[in-house]
Amino acid sequence: MPDSPMGWSSWYSYSGGVSQENILKTARLLISSGLAQYGYRYVNIDDCWQGARGGKYRAIQPNKRFPDMKSMCREIHSLGLKAGIYSTPWMGTYAGYMGGTSPNPQGDYSSLALPESKRPQPDQLFGSCPGSQRLGAAKTGPVWMITQDARQWAEWGFDYVKMDWYLIDVPSTERIAADLKKSGRDIVLSVSNSTPFEIAGPISKTANVWRTTGDIEDHWGSLKKIASSQEKWQPYAGPGHWNDPDMLQIGRLGKVGKANTTFSPTRLTPDEQYFQMSFWAIISAPLIISCDLEHLDDFTRGILCNREVIAVNQTFHGPSEKVLSQDDGEVWIKPLGEGRTAVGFFNKSNKGQTIHVPLSRLKLKSPQNARDLWKQENAGTASREMKVRLNPHGAALFLLEGKR
């Protein structure tokens, strides 16, 4: 996985109702919608798939909504896609399901679990969030069982695992990475959430993806807060190792933790959706969508399927850098190689504004040929400066080519 991963996750769509049926439906929709041709290839099951421990490894087996994990992965692979799964080094997940450690060698959680009559779903041992915290399961248990879970994931055919706990720590991450390596299958390791910045160095050498934030929500306050926290992380990104500010809040979404069958448009405005996609592109963040793909409208497709914007995200010749910050307006640059530079303009203000930036601030010499990547048209030649008018919470993304 040298490039920043692109794909789909179940958490903000089917969430608590994730199933083999809707995972395979999504995989087929990635193909029929054309999104796979743009690079969206991971189909990731998030929380809520877990049943009881069993099988030859005494690993977590799926609940009844997943009758055959191996055949599911086989079908996903037959479409040219990759499959992802979710767990935690805690005894219980955020959604209240079984985790990767246990109170005992038998993998018996009954001493902590709710009576079955009080569980929202039969396998939701600790109840809805924050049930695991309330019942004492939101911690690493005395018996580490991720070693056998990793062997099971490899045997099923998974290519990606998201391990979710707080606070992320180096010893646990190294142990999980070692277990995945011992499984005999090349599996991407994504750790979540809220990685302490103090361990950015060792985490960036161990994990392939690490969350730099808490959970994102589909409103401007959440997006602005996350975008404002990413600058210090940029030096740690590089091929195979990526900062993750969480999923794209674009398209029609469900309610987290609910067994969703219907979806509502994101609460982000069109400008805010352009802001998120532009910002995620310029900082090389994973492009993981979580929207309903069955009713994909032209606007959403236009944001997700702009090849020139995706190319900025997927091309890495050095870390991104914020070069201007003034009056809630920012300018970021990202080297793309061969005399090309991506330049992102971002307006965090509640008012429209024009952002001016001299080419010298962009570390470029005159002249520069400019291309507007969202309009997909040439924007003339910049000789001394760039000047861009942005809506409130708006963004623009340019490719400059010329002298450095």
Secondary structure elements and pairings:
Elements: E1 6-9, H1 20-32, E2 42-44, E3 50-54, E4 59-62, H2 69-78, E5 82-87, E6 101-102, H3 131-134, E7 143-144, H4 146-156, E8 160-164, H5 170-182, E9 188-192, H6 200-206, E10 209-211, H7 220-227, E11 242-244, E12 252-253, E13 264-265, H8 270-282, E14 287-289, H9 298-304, H10 307-314, E15 321-326, E16 329-337, E17 340-347, E18 353-358, E19 368-372, E20 377-382, E21 385-390, E22 395-402
Helix pairs in contact: 1-2, 4-5, 8-10
| Alpha-beta content class | alpha/beta
Distance between the termini: 30 Å
In helices, the fraction of residues equals: 10-25%
Shape: elongated
Strand order of the largest sheet: 11-10-9-8-5-2-1-14
Q: Tally the helices: what do you get? A: 10
Number of strands: 22
Largest sheet: 8 strands, parallel
Q: Could you state the oligomeric state of the chains shown?
A: single chain
Describe this structure in words.
This protein is of the alpha/beta class and 404 residues long. It is built from ten helices and 22 strands. The chain has helices spanning 20-32, 69-78, 131-134, 146-156, 170-182, 200-206, 220-227, 270-282, 298-304, 307-314; strands at residues 6-9, 42-44, 50-54, 59-62, 82-87, 101-102, 143-144, 160-164, 188-192, 209-211, 242-244, 252-253, 264-265, 287-289, 321-326, 329-337, 340-347, 353-358, 368-372, 377-382, 385-390, 395-402. Strands 11-10-9-8-5-2-1-14 form an eight-stranded parallel beta sheet. Helix 1 (20-32) runs parallel beside helix 2 and helix 4 (146-156) crosses helix 5 (170-182). The longest helix has 13 residues, at 20-32. The mean pLDDT is 97.
